[in-house]
UniProtKB/TrEMBL annotation:
TM annotation in the entry: none
InterPro entries the UniProt entry points to: Cbl_synth_CobG-like, NIR_SIR_4Fe-4S, NiRdtase/SiRdtase_haem-b_fer, Nit/Sulf_reduc_fer-like_dom_sf, NO2/SO3_Rdtase_4Fe4S_sf, NO2/SO3_Rdtase_FeS/sirohaem_BS
UniProt keyword annotation of Transport present: no
NCBIfam families attached to this UniProt entry: CobG (TIGR02435)
Pfam families: NIR_SIR_ferr
GO MF term list: 4 iron, 4 sulfur cluster binding; heme binding; metal ion binding; precorrin-3B synthase activity
UniProtKB keywords: 4Fe-4S, Heme, Iron, Iron-sulfur, Metal-binding, Oxidoreductase
Domain Nitrite/Sulfite reductase ferredoxin-like: 16-81
Name assigned to this protein: Precorrin-3B synthase
Gene that produces this protein: cobG
EC number from the UniProt entry: 1.14.13.83
SUPFAM superfamilies assigned: Nitrite and sulphite reductase 4Fe-4S domain-like (SSF56014), Nitrite/Sulfite reductase N-terminal domain-like (SSF55124)
Amino acid sequence: MSAPILRGWCPGAYRPMASGDGLVVRIRPPLGELSSSQAIGLADLARRYGHGIIQMTNRANLQIRGVAESDHAKMLDRLVALDLVPHDSRLDAQNIILDPLRASPSNDVQAKIAVALSEALHDPEPISLPAKFGFVVDTGAARRLGHISGDIRIEAHRDTLLVRADGCRMGRPVHSVTEAVSNALMLTRWFLETGGVNAEGRGRMADLIASGAVPPEPLRGTLPPNPAADPPLPGPTQNGYCVAAAFGQLTSDDLHFLADCGAPWMRLTPWRMMFLPIVELPMGFPRASTLIADPLQPLLRVDACPGAPACPQASVETRALARKLAPSLRPQETLHISGCGKGCARSRPADVTLVGRNGRFDLVRHGTAKDIPDVCSIAPDTVPDFIYR
Ligand code: SF4
């Protein structure tokens, strides 16, 4: 198998990506929220037009796989009717992540910032940005999204809002939602005008800052953001309940169940979990559910991309092997199984990484799918011998 193809763009609802099992349609629900009726509508669309699977991404989006090209337009119409996808295709690519566990919703500053920013990014004309360029809105006393990818970060120092370029330690204090949005836009324009985007149309703020670029004085940071918090675990939280799904993959039945378990709406998270505000304990997961409420479940420490046959770049099956190996993981041990060297499911190092190549696996210890393997070309059925010998 040849080297993985770097596509440099992300699928959307209007611009799905072809995969081994049909189109991948990515949905970015407004404010990362689903009402019960939207969740049920989405679950039914996944069953009708896809494989009945809804994937949660690490950008707090959702993906439906396996959509036939001939069904795409019909499905898109339904997604627009559900208000899950904008009417204007040019607005489909905005990446704005909010803290999903923020308190609700009497004075939701984060939602106000996200709505105003979304409007400003296409008024009067959409600003053209690299596909992976994104904004993080994370203004709580503890930053929950500190480890989540984002190029411009709207955070807080105590109660003061900050706008921070990713890669800079300090953020610029601002004093209103309006000022936060206008500073974020100025920083975006500075990124574009300073050569942040390469000839292939790719670019990230942290790379620009690492190259030595310094934002102009009016945008330069002077205060550090609030301390970062650990990502939440499945189970009860201060104001609701988090439910995880193995590999971030919900079945249509799972989504029906979550829509019906008493929360007024649910929020997508970048941690392969749904957050259900107000709910104390959802009972009775459906049969064959992928849902996880136990924070000690070993599958929470396993990342595996769809692998073969879903992804054309994979020569190995990944998730069945992941389920087989998970119960044998040592306490705290992390496992990443990647269908190829691209490593889509995890960019951080794992204790054990298995990388598919020519129908066999390479083994990397304490690294990523892109690192030099410790052991090469292991037959799939002998993988446990190599990991645990
Ligand atoms: S890492 Fe997995 S999902 Fe990504 S391109 Fe390779 S096989 Fe496909």
